[in-house]
Structure formats: structure tokens, C-alpha cells
Amino acid sequence: MALKDLPADARPREKLLARGPAALSDTELLALLLRTGTQKHGVLQMAQSIRDHFDGLAGLLHASGDDLKQIHGLGGTAKRAELMAVLELARRAVAEQLKAREVFGSPQAVKNYLQLHLAHKKHEVFAALFLDAQNRLIALEELFRGTLTQTSVYPREVVLKALHHHAAAVVLAHNHPSGTVQPSRADEALTQTLKAALALVDVRVLDHVIVAPGDALSMAERGLL
């Protein structure tokens, strides 16, 4: 059914203005962003199809521009650009939260932030959150790409970045494109190597977070740090 054929109080825009955004379903909110559907599918049907394709909003938020481009109706630039902008706004909102207060006052926010940045990537990425003395976020930097081992992640480079940011502590992070967040023996060995290297310059390793689409694991919470 086209939006124009719906009762006025059931149309997403009118419903939002009358009752607030919380009254709308995920599909209706997404339909508002899309504005129009395709020749074969109305905007609500298109929104539901996109939501189903990514297994919900969390999956959509972790989607890359290339992922979106594969969806019928998002091959052009306008709608895809708007969805990518929403994703970037979500990243920046969480970053502001982490910069304004102690990171570990909200451990779930850290996981969400890292998922938004790393979980959608098709290759392994090693990154670090650099923190000040109050454990507030200074910067997130992607440092290495590819299969992560003690030989492919260079402790010297991590130490230099920590010194560059005048960091007092770091949270290490990487993604598992396979979808599992269970740490490997190599992950555990790498964590200990970096922990020892950073300790030489009085920088603490507070955690190593492993992310995948829809999931995240804290090695500190598992007692592996």
C-alpha cells in the first residue's frame, strides 16, 4: 500500500509529528528516511525488506556503503548517502559521549562504538582507543589490517601512537569477520605482548574488545587481560 492510501494518522510522518518518534516502528522510521520506494515496492515494503536483509537495525547500522549499494533501490546515491549519514551521526554521537565522561562508566557504549566502526568490515582490522588520565576518549585509530598475529601487529607502532596522543591508557580492539567473537590463542598472546610493551611507557591496557556484527566481547570481563 502506498503512503498516500493510508489513513492520515497512520502515515509515518504525520504519526511522528502527532505522537513522537517512539510511536513509530523501526520500519516506519526507516521509511521516513527513504521517503520513496521503487516502481515495484512502496516505501514501507522497501523499508521492511532492507530491515529484514540486515537482520534488524543493528545489522543495518553496521552495513557499509558497498553493502547498501547491493540492495535494490539503494543503488543510486541519494538514499544510500542519507543512510550512511545517519550511521556516521550515530558514530559521532557515541564518540561525544565517550569523550565527555569516563569510558568505563558505560562499557556498553564502548562496545557499541567499536561495533559501529569495525563490525561491518570484511577484513580484520586492529584498532585502539586512546584514553586520557580520566579514561576519556582522545581518539580511535585503525592501526593494522589483515590477519592479526604477533608478527603482523607491531608493538612499536602501537607504543608510538600512544605517545603521540599522550595517552594514559588504551583499549585494544579488533573485528572478527567470521562472526564469532571468541578470542583465539593468538588474540590472547597478542594482548599480553602489547600490554607488556605499553607498560614500558606507563600506558595501561584496560581491555581488548573483539567485535562482530551484532556482538562484542570484552577480554577484561572474561578475565583474559
From TrEMBL:
All copies of domain MPN, residue ranges: 103-225
Biological processes, Gene Ontology terms: proteolysis
Pfam families attached to this UniProt entry: RadC, UPF0758_N
Ranges that cross the membrane: none
One of the record's GO molecular function terms: metallopeptidase activity
UniProt entry keywords in alphabetical sequence: Hydrolase, Metal-binding, Metalloprotease, Protease, Zinc
Annotated InterPro entries: MPN, RadC_JAB, RuvA_2-like, UPF0758, UPF0758_CS, UPF0758_N
Gene3D superfamilies from the UniProt entry: Cytidine Deaminase, domain 2
Family statement drawn from the similarity comment of this UniProt entry: Belongs to the UPF0758 family.
Name of the protein described by the UniProt record: JAB domain-containing protein
Origin species: Caenimonas sedimenti
